[in-house]
């Protein structure tokens, strides 16, 4: 029986302090939103809990002022 261990991804915001998280930065926020406009979980994005909460808040604020869509409708 073989065991497979996956390497934990590091938080990009903790690693690089020059990256600033802002709800007006659409290009950065789209990296944390799936193609169906859902927020990507931290186990996939690699964010720490502190920065994942900040990303979630920023995405919700961007949706509120119509920078990002709430959902993508496919017909």
In short:
This protein has 75 residues and is mainly α.
Task: Give keywords.
75 residues, mainly alpha, 30s Ribosomal Protein S18
Task: Describe the fold and architecture.
There is one protein chain. This protein has 75 residues and is mainly α. It has helices spanning 12-15, 26-29, 42-45, 49-64. The chain has one domain (12-64): 30s Ribosomal Protein S18 (Irregular), CATH 4.10.640. The protein is built from 4 helices and no strands. The relative contact order is 0.21.
Distance between the termini: 46 Å
**Portion in beta strands:** under 5%
Oligomer: single chain
What form results from the Cα inertia axes?
Answer: flat
Percent in helix: 25-40%
Major beta sheet, specifics? none
Enter the CATH topology name. 30s Ribosomal Protein S18
Mean pLDDT: 90
Number of beta strands:
0
What's the CATH H-level superfamily name?
Ribosomal protein S18
Q: What is the SS-derived class?
A: mainly alpha
